Amino acid sequence: MAKRSYSCIVYGDPVGTAYLASTRQIRKNGKLVQVPQLVKTRDARLWMATARPIAKVATGGGGLLKGPLRLDVTAYLRRPKRLIYKRKPMPSVVAPVKPDRTNILKLAEDSMKGIWWKDDNVVVAGEPLKFYAAGEGYGDPRPRVEIQAWEIEEGNE
C-alpha cells in the first residue's frame, strides 16, 4: 500500500504555541478557590483558525493519515529591515529569533489534529526549521509556514 502524504502553506506571520497564565475560580469544599490554568494566546488561536481550513482542503477528502507519521514544518518569518538590501542578494537565511521553532511545530501539530491525524501522538519524526523569508527575486518573500506530513514505515524515518 502506498504511503500517503499531505502538505499545505499557511501564509501570514508564523506564531508559536504560547500560553498565557490565567486563573479561574472553582468551588472546593464550599469555598471559591483560584486555580491557575494555561490558555493559548489570541495570536495562536487566530493562526489555528487560518490553518485548519487550508489543511482540510489539502486532504482532498483523503481522510486521516494512519500509523507513525513524519511532520516537517518550515517557518519563513518576515525579514527584518536590517536584513533588507538594495543591491545585495537576499536568499532565505536562518532566523535565530522568537518564536521558538518547537513552539511553531507544536502549534502546527495542534492545528492538524482531527484533520490530518486523529491525535498528534502519531507524529514520531520530523524537523522544524526557521528562516527569514527570501527577498524580492529570490523566492517567495511572504512570511508563511510550510507543513508537510507523510506516513512512514515503522522502524524508518
CATH class: Alpha Beta
Provide the β-strand percentage band: 25-35%
User: N-to-C terminal Cα separation, in Å?
Assistant: 17 Å
The number of helical segments is: 2
Binned, the helix content reads: 10-25%
Order of helices and strands: EEEHEEHEEE
- The value of Rg in angstroms is 19 Å
- In the CATH hierarchy, what is the architecture at level 2? 2-Layer Sandwich
Please outline the major beta sheet: 6 strands, mixed
How many DSSP E strands?
Answer: 8
Let me know the average pLDDT: 86
Q: What low-confidence regions span 5 or more consecutive residues with pLDDT below 50?
A: none
The total domain count is: 1
CATH superfamily: Holliday junction resolvase RusA
Question: What name does CATH use for the topology?
Answer: 60s Ribosomal Protein L30, Chain: A
Give the key terms.
157 residues; alpha/beta; 60s Ribosomal Protein L30, Chain: A; six-stranded mixed sheet; two-stranded antiparallel sheet; 2 helices; 34% strand; globular
Protein architecture, described:
With 157 residues, this protein is an alpha/beta fold. It has a single domain, classed as 60s Ribosomal Protein L30, Chain: A, CATH 3.30.1330. Helix content is 19%, strand content 34%. It is built from 2 helices and 8 strands. Strands 1, 4, 5, 6, 7 and 8 form a 6-stranded mixed β-sheet that branches. The chain has a two-stranded antiparallel sheet with strand order 2-3. Helix 1 (42-59) packs across helix 2. The longest helix has 18 residues, at 42-59. It is globular.
